[in-house]
DNA sequence: AGTATTAATGCACAAAAACGCAAAAACTTT
DNA sequence: AAAGTTTTTGCGTTTTTGTGCATTAATACT
């Protein structure tokens, strides 16, 4: 097994489990912990992962540390600025939760009129601050981690609605495998969201690109728009361009 | 669990609860209090949180919706303290919105287990911060002023559920005329809430007593508990005592 | 004031990282 | 093919880091 094979294995493991232990890897790969540590150091150097004492974490791991967050906030605001342009007066939309989505909602002009469906109480509150918007909460049991309403009820309710555009964040997005997610319950709801929308916009920071999680939400050709903080002509976005409009 | 993960967890808890106790964290995270204290010290050093005796506080706690405009916070906390005692482990409850209700939800102990239905996204979020609670949002169109979900949908959903106790705030409460409300849409939802509950608790500051609004929600004999900031033996509460339990 | 928590300090121990070094492997050059 | 060079890997040793415990100091509560 070559060094780069080993390293791509490590990356896969991290995408799958969100974290790895040096000790475990050394057993799985049948190399010394020392070698694993060196691999992790290299990957961290290249910005692929976050190294911590005892192993490493996924980069997309939500870091509450201020510096990290504020960096992300700027990128997210950039994304939000582009995403909000997709919203036309009078449209009916469906939106998911997440910090990027929150930034977008905040950028919606006060004068905007339209109808918003959402499975997120937080988005609902934020949307309700806009007097011109019709906000409809799709109820259900709140999932503790994702903070969205899940279960049978929202899924069947979603089956009965038809919206112009659905905004989804991305846990994982790959140019071949499409959108993916790690939680079963959340996956079910998001699938229902995709089904009830005519068009699908994925808005995400670029670091979530090219990663694959356990459950597939939809193939690439179902995605209509991809909004990231990068310039649309950035080379990282090239593989996506044939299937969707990159903004 | 890595140190970083533990610290993220702490941050999350603080964002959710607005405060944490070292002792509780040490149990939840299964580490010594000493370690928790060191984590808190590091996070405080990094400016993430504010360390206080016994735990830590959120640095800049604010909801997207400016809820801090509320007045008589002290009285409301007093009410909340009494109201929370009505909640027994394992109960199924239904709660309305309002600042007093918010205070009450915040006082629910972390260890409490039960199922909460609510038509308020804000309450839902606050409830969802408690790991032991099942939180079910009853969806609908958000009413801009009352910030609760209204319309036909929540009313029919409410018709299908049965809860042990319903907490309602009061716009108007009179010892002869009962509970009253001024908005038609809101009235309909609250009526449905009352219908689906075995017992009804009204929690309100005393200044709302002896006032009547356009629409009647229910007669006095439907109310089981009345919680105010006053002493139960206060003379203002006397007219209510024959119909309900005054706390 | 007195008691009970909570914080701080120093210390011990274990786990992990860093470092230097040497052997092995892969790659170059002759 | 052989020799030389570079890269990679593993091993022992030393440092550093993380954690818990005991003792003492500080702080809240009544």
Description of the molecule:
The structure is a homodimer of 247-residue chains. By secondary structure, chain A is α/β, with parallel strands linked by helices. The first copy, chain A, folds into two domains: 56 residues, Arc Repressor Mutant, subunit A (Orthogonal Bundle), CATH 1.10.10.10; 180 residues, 3-Layer(aba) Sandwich (Rossmann fold). Chain A contains nine helices and 15 strands. In chain A, the strands form four sheets. The first copy, chain A, has a seven-stranded parallel beta sheet, with helices on both faces. In chain A, β14, α9 and β15 form a beta-alpha-beta unit. The longest helix of chain A has 18 residues. At the A-B interface, α6, β6 and β7 of A face α1, α6, β6 and β7 of B. The first copy, chain A, binds a DNA duplex (30 and 30 nucleotides) through α3.
Outline:
The structure is a homodimer of 247-residue chains. Chain A has helices at 3-17, 22-29, 33-45, 66-83, 99-107, 121-128, 152-159, 184-195, 238-241; strands spanning 19-21, 49-52, 55-58, 92-95, 114-118, 133-137, 140-142, 149-150, 163-168, 172-174, 178-181, 197-203, 215-218, 225-227, 245-246.
């Amino acid at each position: 097994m070559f060094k780069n094979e080993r390293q791509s294995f490590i990356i896969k493991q991290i995408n799958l489990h969100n974290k790895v232990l040096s000790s475990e890897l050394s057993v799985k790969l049948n190399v010394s912990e020392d070698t694993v540590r060196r691999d992790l150091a290299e990957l961290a150097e290249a910005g692929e992962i976050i190294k911590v004492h005892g192993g490493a974490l996924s980069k997309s791991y939500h870091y509450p540390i201020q510096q990290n967050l504020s960096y992300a906030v700027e990128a997210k605001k950039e994304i939000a600025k582009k995403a909000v342009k997709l919203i036309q007066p009078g449209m009916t939309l469906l939106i998911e939760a997440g910090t990027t989505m929150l930034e977008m909602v905040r950028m919606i002009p006060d004068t905007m009129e339209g109808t918003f469906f959402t499975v997120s109480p937080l988005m609902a509150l934020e949307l309700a601050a806009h007097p011109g918007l019709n906000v409809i909460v799709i109820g259900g049991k709140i999932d503790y981690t994702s903070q969205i309403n899940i279960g049978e009820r929202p899924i069947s309710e979603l089956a009965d609605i038809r919206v112009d555009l659905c905004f989804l964040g991305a846990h994982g997005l790959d140019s071949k495998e499409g959108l993916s997610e790690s939680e079963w319950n959340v996956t079910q709801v998001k699938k229902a969201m995709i089904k009830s929308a005519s068009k699908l916009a994925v808005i995400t920071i670029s670091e979530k690109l090219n990663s694959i999680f356990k459950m597939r939400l939809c193939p690439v050709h179902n995605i209509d728009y991809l909004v990231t903080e990068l310039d649309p002509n950035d080379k990282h976005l090239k593989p996506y361009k044939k299937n969707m409009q990159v903004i």
